[in-house]
From TrEMBL:
Enzyme Commission number(s): 1.1.99.2
UniProt keywords, alphabetically: FAD, Flavoprotein, Membrane, Oxidoreductase, Transmembrane, Transmembrane helix
Organism: Trichoderma ghanense
Reactions mediated catalytically: (S)-2-hydroxyglutarate + A = 2-oxoglutarate + AH2
FAD dependent oxidoreductase domain location: 29-404
Descriptive protein name: L-2-hydroxyglutarate dehydrogenase, mitochondrial
Length: 414
């Protein structure tokens, strides 16, 4: 487990293709075996006549961002109407609940309270309420002070609380196992331990766009291993923490980008009291780079707190920074004063890929960075996904539909 959570997905040797066996052609190559890459590969495998390969650099699927998060099914209440995060989260939530019901993936729709302690936080809740009511149609309701006192299980909300009843949690590893099984049942091939070394867009002539004659992807069979080449008609870059490196293999030097890394530290709670039966999020703080140190639950009801936001240079820096515990305690006690600080212990850390550094400002929001999902101009058959962080897990199935539409004009029924 990561802390107490499983770090790797089970593998069936008969369904794994290693790099030395990959000299073949496919209709689609998807780079990145996290939950988003799995969802895309599965969606593309539904395309009539398709042959899809999913390329993952690690020995197992879903070992990076997909397995180091809060496992929350988000309602999409924080994002403006015209953003990809809003549209894909709203659609993805419905698709995800439906898939879990059909295939027996464990989840719980427990709801979430956003709690405010001061006038500024109250104003933030009022803005969220207005957005949900007037623009995006997501159900929320105000929680009366009496209800907070009677049903709040020790939660403090001095300036009010807003409930998101459709928020839930999901077994992210069970979800990825399900998606992998569906992908392989449709004839898809999973290539593990296959880091991408080079990518070449092919063209049919001097006037043709790169990629018009397909793509060649060189992969390695581990350190010092043989190089094998996959040829595909279309290419999807869903490599998460490695997505910018893949992007930079394809574009000219002037168009290369840099990725920034925000680590999130999580702390688990070992005491039996207080008992909390819903997710608790502090109201957004103006100018904050995250959603605060929130309380989430796993499917067994165990409490954990996090993530915070710690900017780091190394995406492999996944050791929990225990020095941040006292700061986390101070934030938690604002909304859960009965918490026992001695029962908080470092658990695990996750990494969020960011397209802008700490403090970077956009034209409309100093903290907001939307998903980058685009069929790249100047190329044929290449869909590029960059900066896919929260709510990427919730949005994964809707992202997959979008990628299929970008490549083929429509999404196959799931």
């Amino acid at each position: 487990m990561l802390g107490r959570r499983a770090a790797r997905l089970a593998r069936s040797p008969s369904q794994i293709c290693h790099a030395q066996a990959l000299n073949f052609s496919s209709t689609a190559a998807v780079i990145g075996g996290g939950v988003v890459g799995l969802a895309i590969a599965r969606q593309l495998s539904l395309q009539p006549g398709s042959s899809t390969v999913l390329i993952e650099r690690h020995p197992a699927l879903g070992t990076e961002t997909s397995s180091r998060n809060s496992e929350v099914i988000h309602a999409g209440i924080y994002y403006g109407r015209d953003t990809l995060k809003a549209a894909l989260c709203h659609r993805g939530k419905d698709l995800l609940y439906s898939l879990c019901d059909r295939h027996g993936v464990a989840y719980r729709r427990m709801g979430k309270w956003l709690v405010a302690q001061n006038p500024a936080q109250r104003e933030a809740l009022e803005r969220i309420h207005a957005l949900c009511r007037d623009e995006i149609g997501v159900p929320v309701r105000w929680v009366a002070r009496k209800e907070v006192d009677e049903r709040g299980e020790g939660v403090r909300a001095e300036a009010g609380a807003l409930e998101s009843p459709t928020t839930g949690i999901v077994d992210s590893h069970g979800l990825m196992l399900c998606l992998r099984g569906l992908f392989e049942e449709a004839g898809g091939v999973v290539a593990l331990s296959s880091p991408v070394m080079d990518i070449r867009p092919l063209s049919g002539g001097a006037s043709s766009l790169p990629g018009s004659a397909g793509w060649e992807v060189d992969v390695s069979d581990g350190p010092g291993g043989d190089i094998s080449t996959i040829t595909a008609e279309t290419l999807v870059n869903a490599a998460g923490l490695g997505a910018v490196a893949v992007h930079n293999m394809i574009v000219p030097p002037s168009e290369r980008r840099r990725l920034y890394f925000a680590k999130g530290n999580y702390f688990s709670y070992t005491a039996s009291r207080p008992r909390i039966s819903r997710l608790i999020y502090p109201a957004p703080e103006p100018g904050a780079s995250g959603l605060g140190t929130h309380l989430t639950l796993d499917l067994a009801g165990r409490i954990r707190f996090g993530p915070d936001v710690e900017w780091v240079d190394d995406p492999n820096d996944l050791t929990v920074n225990a020095s941040r515990l006292q700061e986390a305690v101070a934030e938690i006690q604002k909304y859960l004063p009965a918490i026992d600080p001695a029962a908080l212990v470092p658990d695990y850390a996750g990494m969020r890929p960011k397209l802008a550094p700490k403090g970077a400002a956009s034209a409309t929001d100093k903290s907001f960075q939307d998903f980058y999902i685009k069929k790249e101009d100047g190329y044929e058959g290449w869909v590029n996904l960059l900066g896919i962080e929260s709510p990427g897990l919730t949005s994964s199935l809707a992202i997959a539909e979008m990628v299929q539409r970008l490549l083929h004009g429509q999404a196959s029924s799931t």
